[in-house]
Amino acid sequence: MFGRRSHGDAQAQIDAIGRSQAMITFNTDGTIVTANKHFLDLLGYGLDQIQGKHHSMFVPADQRDGADYQAFWAALRRGECRAGEFKRIANGGREIWIEASYNPVLDDAGKPVKIVKIATDITAKKIRGLTEASKIAAISRAQAVIEFKLDGTIVTANENFCKALGFSLAEIEGKHHSLFMPPQARDSAAYREFWEKLNRGEYQAGEYKRIGKGGREVWILASYNPLLDETGKPFGVVKFATDVTAEKLKNADLAGQLAAIDKAQAVIEFNMDGTIIAANANFLATLGYSLAEIKGKHHSMFVEPSERDSVAYREFWAALNRGEYQSAEYKRIGKGGKEVYIQASYNPILDLNGKPFKVVKYATDTTKQVLVRMGNERVRAMMESVAAGSEELNASVREISEAMTKSRETAMGAVEQVSSADAQAGDERHRRDDQQHHGADQPARAQRHDRVRARRRGRPGLCGGRIRGEGPCQPGQAGHRQDRSGDRQPEPDLGGCCRLPECDQAGDQQCQRVRDVDRRCDRGTEHGDERDVDQHAACCGRGRCHGEPGLISPAASSEHPAI
Predict the structure, then answer these.
(1) Calpha distance 76→105 (Å, rounded)
(2) pLDDT tens, position by position, 107-122
(3) Beta strand extents in 165-279 (DSSP E only)
(4) Which of 26, 280, 348, 496 could disulfide-pair with 356, CB 3.0 to 4.6 Å?
(5) Model pTM?
């Protein structure tokens, strides 16, 4: 810069530059000769604080003894100019950035005699640049970045982009962006319009489907950013992208599940205050409303009037507002007062801070099942009532049966006691009668014995006796009786045995005697009344007898051979 010129010209140029820029002069060994006000103000020193000291006082400590710093001054001593952006340390350790040139001043022989440094403070610009560079570097670490010319050819791409699409940089550099597009979209009007907008400097952003290596589908969330020159004219495009393929597939799966639920169940959404946001077709069909009839209204329109102001209903919504899930079988009121039963879940939806911001209800219409169940419960209750009544009836019957059994046992005991007493009384009476008639009635008693034996033998049809004036009774002969007028009347109901006329003609006394002859029954017990005689089919011969006249059982005949 400062070659072989006259001393006056060189000094004039230095003075002109010094009025606008920071300047400092060094000996070739690096010691400071002088500095202008701009330089001193920039570094925060006075001239006396730096004059005679080495340039290294402005250099970061880690660079002072480095090979690069030593080579830097060696080049200057050879007369070589050095320029660039440099980080320097000002008074108090403050960091500044300068854009500077170090210029050797040569003597007439071309040998450097001093070094003049001209500098401009670029600290603010450098910090902005570093900030932007840091941001870009941070973006590049986190996102896929690729740069294009305005015609769509690829300039470069970072590692994240290459990894997301499965290519290496060599495989895509210099090729067109369309290699990432689905074949059917490459020649479309929409794709051409996309690049036309970028060439006009219009920013593009969205979720895009791209094709990676091997035809693999990749979804990216990306922004295409036109790069502008100082006049605002685009000269390139940089794209920042995030691979959202996994998230996209997950969202597609969730969307598919929600769509399936929407088809199969009744769905309705509420604000946290219970007002209705939306409802699907299944819900509207179940309750009988249109969306316009319920949107913006409160959930309580579906609740029975008696429940709307209840403590339980208020607590129901308070729990939802606390983010607590609710699930049960509910009775709801549809359009026109129609009763509807649903199995439903109320699901609070939480924001990013975990605070509920709406409620989604999924429900299934269970009205038919509930009505069937209620009917079954009524039938079961009736059956249980009938069963309880039947059990009570059975208990009553058992009690009555037990009482009757006890009564029968008591009665039988009483009957046996009475029968025993009657038998004893009869025996006593017979004894007295026998004593009274012992002598006078011997023929009559013999005749009565004959008649009884005849009746007993007459069961199979042989009387064994005689009918007065007619000879012996024959098998199969019709029975006869003689009434008090002396006429004989056939009695076919006697089974071939005759009825002896003496019984009809005799009085009660004679009939009693006939009975007395047959006092012993099958069991060897003596009886004296008509009932016992009738029980053993031994007829007393009286026309009034309620047994079968004239008959006695073969068992009785065999058990009483003496008669």
Answers:
(1) 10
(2) 989 999 999 999 999 9
(3) 204-211, 217-228, 234-243, 266-270, 276-279
(4) 348
(5) 0.48
